């Protein structure tokens, strides 16, 4: 290493580097929020990990940190008396960008962190080691991390131990994810929807931003099951879930409530945006009818309700209104089908 590059690495006046956003940021944040873990109480299964980590490594600070859109929030926290810090000064925001431990043996010798306010001021972090917590598919929602107020050496054995503890924590998070998702389609289930939509609704209420609720129920799905079998019925449910995923934005909350019923909550969506999304959905269904040669058409009844940001009702009321709207559409579709059958059977 020449003199200049060695200076650059240790230059104490170098500017702190805020963490980049990972390329899957939108999906990452919406999956994190769908866990409904943010701003919840402490839980023994996570506190156990930080207690073990603190004892094993003999550090003053051990955290299970969730990296949210603009902050890091601590699900478990030993040694700090705050539950969150801004993301742009967080170490964990950097750690979630990699697949392995981010190790900073001495923060004052690292230009990314030397003038970080968490280094120059309380809690005076001199050492950091953070392992990314993963929901799978490269979705890193936070870290298990250790901090100390003095520089430290970290051996290969220490690294392996931290990885093992981190994997244990990821498994706990994946268990939380499994309880809120639908096995067949991978969408949120009813429970996941209620918690994710409840959180999003509170945000929209605070920002007075408009919300729409879209309730979908497949038409004559029982007939597909009865005629083509349940395996084909399951395929239809997965195809429909895929259409919802590709039609709506990643900031919208899409779920299978049960059976052949699906729901989408669109956040910050004015009526024109909602209308455009419904048109896209109808176009997807029409394209599927043309392409698929499976002996049946895939149809659904859609009930849509838009709500003004200044006057948002509760989640239950929104769902009930959209459901009622969907049934009105379903009754109309049934009458339409009966009418068509009647016309087809009438000799011309
Ligand atoms: N293949 C499959 N079928 C399911 C699943 N969950 C529920 N069902 C079936 O979905 C069907 C829903 O029937 P209905 O509510 O009468 O719906 P429908 O036939 O679409 O009737 P309309 O809504 O009036 O058009 C029932 O036959 C259930 O057995 C599932 O996970 N897989």
Describe the protein.
By secondary structure, this protein is of the alpha+beta class. It folds into 2 domains: 3-179, GAF domain (Beta-Lactamase, 2-Layer Sandwich), CATH 3.30.450; 190-345, Reverse transcriptase/Diguanylate cyclase domain (Alpha-Beta Plaits), CATH 3.30.70.270. It is built from 11 helices and 10 strands. The chain has helices at 3-10, 25-34, 44-57, 92-95, 117-120, 156-179, 190-207, 221-228, 230-247, 271-291, 315-345, and strands at 61-67, 71-78, 84-86, 102-104, 127-134, 140-148, 211-218, 253-258, 261-267, 300-307. Strands 3-2-1-6-5-4 form a 6-stranded antiparallel beta sheet. The chain has a 4-stranded antiparallel beta sheet with strand order 8-9-7-10, sandwiched between helices. A hairpin with a 5-residue loop joins strand 2 and strand 3 (84-86). Helix 3 runs antiparallel to helix 6 and helix 8 (221-228) packs across helix 9. It is elongated, with a radius of gyration of 25 Å. The termini are far apart. Residues 1-13 have low confidence and may be disordered.
Average predicted local confidence, pLDDT: 90
**CATH class descriptor name of the largest domain:** Alpha Beta
The gross shape turns out to be: elongated
Number of strands: 10
- The CATH superfamily of the largest domain is identified as GAF domain
CATH architecture of the largest domain: 2-Layer Sandwich
**Between the first and last Cα atoms, what is the distance in angstroms?**
91 Å
- Indicate the structural class: alpha+beta
- Strand proportion, as a percent range, falls in 15-25%
Largest sheet: 6 strands, antiparallel
Could you give the order of strands across the largest sheet?
Answer: 3-2-1-6-5-4
Uncertain runs with pLDDT below 50, 5 residues or more? 1-13
CATH-defined topology of the largest domain: Beta-Lactamase
Rg (CA only): 25 Å
Total DSSP helices: 11
- The run of helices and strands is HHHEEEHEHEEHHEHHEEHEH
Helix content: 40-55%
What binds here, in terms of ligands, is:
guanosine-5'-triphosphate
For the record, the count of structural domains works out to 2
